[in-house]
Amino acid sequence: MKTILTSSLFRFLLVGMLNTAVGLSVMLVLLHGAKLDYWMSTLIGTAVGACVSYVLNRSFTFKSRTAHKTGLIKFLLVLGSCYVVAYASSSWLTGSIGEFIPVLSGDAGRTIAVVLGNGLYTILNYLGQKHFVFAERDRA
């Protein structure tokens, strides 16, 4: 049990809960409250969550000594790739399903796409950070 609680995955998930709560809240407020479109809402929310993520994952999750310049460039590459793959996939999936289930073609479909995209983004992001961004210092 102790190894689970000290693993990088567990720490990543703790940090992820915080940055996901922040980023997802921003996305949904922008999408529904400010009436921004799907892509702008998810982009801004992802950027806000990314700021929290970089600082905490570098220092707490992976205990990395990677130079900020190198780490930040790699981090942004991973985030950008994860963002495009995750949110484009979830948008396409809910849009395709929305053709058969009309209730998923409006706000409900966009909300589901945001939540699905967020889950896929989290998985891809962990793998990218662990194996590419902060790989040299991860011992957990």
Would you kindly provide a brief summary of this structure?
With 140 residues, this protein is mostly helical.
Give the SSE layout:
Layout: H1 2-6, H2 8-33, H3 38-61, H4 68-98, H5 107-133
Helix pairs in contact: 2-3, 2-5, 3-4, 4-5
Can you put this structure into words, describing what you see?
The protein has 140 residues and is an all-alpha fold. It has five helices and no strands. The longest helix has 31 residues, at 68-98. The relative contact order is 0.16.
Question: What is the succession of H and E elements?
Answer: HHHHH
Largest sheet: none
Percent strand:
under 5%
Poorly predicted tracts of residues: none
* SS content category: mainly alpha
How many runs of DSSP E, i.e. beta strands?
A: 0
Q: Counting H and I runs of at least 4 residues, what is the number of helices? A: 5
Cα-based radius of gyration, to the nearest Å: 16 Å
Helical proportion? over 70%
What is the assembly state of the chains in this entry?
Answer: single chain
Overall geometric form: elongated
Gap from first CA to last CA = 13 Å
Give the rounded overall mean pLDDT. Answer: 88
Output the keywords.
140 residues, mainly alpha, 5 helices, elongated
